[in-house]
Write a structure and sequence with these properties.
By secondary structure, the chain is an all-alpha fold. It is 74% helix and 1% strand. The chain has one domain (3-316): Farnesyl Diphosphate Synthase, CATH 1.10.600.10. It has 16 helices and two strands. Helix 1 packs across helix 4 (59-83) and helix 15 (276-293) packs antiparallel against helix 16 (301-316). It is globular, with a radius of gyration of 20 Å. It starts with a helix and ends with a helix.
Length: 319
């Protein structure tokens, strides 16, 4: 077992133990969420960044990675509730399997457990980084992208939202790992910037897959964002470049109203067949390239290569 594999195993064991509670209405949904799997990309980023300091992965770093993953998990619970999503990773969401109130409280519970994990790191900078990311996540969740044109205005709103909602925690993961590994401040800053750019790419790819991904791999039907009236990058670019008859503009103008099935199918197909998904993927690749530039501070190829591999996984993923 490699150092990373061992650290990941310690992370899973720690989180599974941490969510246990005599109150089964909390522990059972929390176990359900953690057991549904997930990529643990944020934890992997923490561990790889920690290795830049030349030290073995310490328990402090495992606690920090757990805090990052628990904040992420908490945000998913609340996000699913807000969006009324019935499935997550092919499994029923917590508000569907249990209750609306359970989802609210389990999300809060996971945030509280993240704070407990942070306390075990004994590092105020870890607390600062995660607190800043948690605030940004809330700001991003409440922010709305409510127009598809003018194009530059729509792009700015979208990038601001995903920067807060998703990229902020990736950035925190990079910073935290470097801090726990004892890296120089220049490296800490570079890993934060690397993580942030990677998070932007991650969310854009996620939004593309919502339109054109394999439904079996994703565990949910295509067009979930469209069905919920969410404006994301593929739709923004589709309106800008492939909507001469105004079909997409008319659909966006009626977001919030029930979607007749035949109209939904036509709008979904238009976006899928448009240049929107391709242009969005190209933007994700630009963020990927931006992320790689921040790795120039990592001069040892054996340390840089695993971080490059994480970045590749983000932009090449299919689910």
């Amino acid at each position: 077992m490699t150092g990373i594999e061992e650290a990941m195993a310690r992370l899973e064991a720690y989180m599974q133990g941490l969510v246990e509670s005599p109150v089964l209405w909390l522990s059972a949904p929390a176990r359900h969420l953690l057991s549904a799997g997930g990529k643990r990309l944020r934890a992997a980023l923490v561990f790889r960044a920690a290795q830049l300091g030349g030290r073995p992965i310490a328990p402090q770093t495992v606690y920090a990675a757990a805090a990052v993953e628990l904040v992420h998990a908490a945000s998913l619970v609340h996000d699913d509730l807000i969006d009324q999503s019935p499935h997550r990773r092919g499994q029923p969401t917590i508000h569907e399997k249990w209750h609306h109130d359970a989802a609210v409280l389990v999300g809060d519970y996971l945030f509280a457990l993240a704070a407990r994990a942070i306390a075990l790191t004994g590092e105020i900078r870890v607390l600062e980084a995660i607190a800043e990311a948690a605030v940004a996540i809330c700001e991003g969740e409440i922010s709305t992208v409510d127009q598809v044109e003018p194009l530059e205005v729509a792009l700015e709103s979208y990038r601001l939202k995903i920067g807060r909602k998703t990229a902020s925690l990736f950035g925190a993961a990079g910073r935290i790992g470097a801090i726990c590994g004892g890296a120089a401040e220049e490296t800490v800053a570079a890993m934060g910037a690397f993580g942030y750019a990677l998070g932007m790419a991650f969310q854009i790819v996620d939004d593309v897959l919502d339109y054109v991904g394999d439904e079996h791999l994703l565990g949910k039907p295509a067009g979930g964002d469209l069905r919920r009236g969410l404006i994301t990058l593929p739709l923004i670019y589709a309106v800008a470049h492939d909507d001469s008859d105004g079909l997409l503009r008319r659909a966006v103008a009626r977001f919030g109203e029930p979607f007749p099935p035949e109209e939904f199918a036509a709008v979904l197909q238009r976006v899928q067949n448009s240049s929107g998904p391709r242009l969005a993927r190209e933007e994700a690749l630009r963020y990927y390239e931006q992320a790689l530039k921040h790795l120039q501070v990592v001069t040892e190829p054996e340390q840089r290569s695993p971080l490059e591999e994480i970045a590749r996984r983000v932009v090449e993923r299919t689910y």
